[in-house]
C-alpha cells in the first residue's frame, strides 16, 4: 500500500480574515442576483433577447393604448371634460361665447347636445337650442367629405 499525504487544499486566511482568492463581495453574497438572494428562481422569459422583449412590450402597449383611446370618449365624465375644452377653445379662437350644458356621444357616432347657446362677440344670439341630435356617418369621414 502506498501512503498518500493528505494536503489541505482550502485557501488560508489573509490578514483581513478573508480566504485568499475570495473577495469581500463574494463573501457577503452581493454578486448574486437579487432574486437568488431571496431564494426565488430567476424569471425565465419566452423571449431571451432583452432589447427585443422591451421593444415588443412597448409596441404592444402603444397598440393597446390606441385601441382603448377611442372607447374612452364614450365615458360621460370624459365627454364632459372634452366638451369644456372644446367650448373654451372655440371661445378663444372665434370670440363667440359657446355654452353647452350636456354633450353625449353614443356608439358609433351619434351626438346629442342639450342646452346649446352660441352668442357672437357683438352680443347677438346665433343659436339657442334645447336639444340638438346629430347622426354622423362614418364612411364620409374616412373620405374626408365633411
Overall geometric form:
elongated
Total E-strand runs: 3
Mean pLDDT: 79
Rounded to the nearest angstrom, the distance between the terminal CA atoms is: 105 Å
Strand content: 15-25%
Structure annotation, total helices: 5
**How are helices and strands ordered from N to C?**
HHHHEEEH
How many whole angstroms does the radius of gyration measure?
Answer: 35 Å
Explain what this protein looks like in three dimensions.
This protein has 146 residues and is an alpha+beta fold. It has five helices and three strands. The protein has helices at residues 24-28, 34-37, 50-72, 76-94, 138-142; strands at 97-106, 110-119, 125-135. The relative contact order is 0.06.
Features:
single chain; 146 residues; alpha+beta; three-stranded antiparallel β-sheet; 3 strands; 38% helix
What's the helix and strand layout?
Layout: H1 24-28, H2 34-37, H3 50-72, H4 76-94, E1 97-106, E2 110-119, E3 125-135, H5 138-142
Antiparallel strand pairs: 1-2, 2-3
Task: Offer a concise description of the structure.
The protein has 146 residues and is α+β, with helices and mostly antiparallel strands. Helix content is 38%, strand content 21%. It has helices at residues 24-28, 34-37, 50-72, 76-94, 138-142; strands at 97-106, 110-119, 125-135.
